[in-house]
Amino acid sequence: MTLSSSTTPDDAPHDRPAPKAEARRRAFGRLALRERASGAARTGTASATIAGEAGVAGTDRAPTVSFLTLVLSHYRIPFHTIVRDILAEHGVNYRLIYSDPVGSDAKKGDTLELPWAVKIPVKRIPIPGGELYWQNALAATRGSALTVISQENKLLVNYLLQARYLLSGSRLAFFGHGKNYQANRPDGWREKLKAQLATRVHWWFAYTPGVKKIVEDYGFPGERITVNYNSIDTGALKGQLEAVTAEDIAAQKAALGIASDNIAIYIGGMYQEKRLPFLIEAAERIRETVPDFHLVMVGSGSHSEIAQIAAASCDYIHFLGPRFGREKATLLKMAKAFVMPGLVGLAIIDSFAAGCPMVTTNVPYHSPEIEYLSDGENGLITSDPENVADYADAVAALLTDDALQARLADGARASVEDYTIERMARNFAEGVLAAIS
Question: What residues contact residue 7 under an 8 Å CB cut-off, 6+ apart?
Answer without folding.
Answer: 75, 232, 236, 237, 324, 328, 350
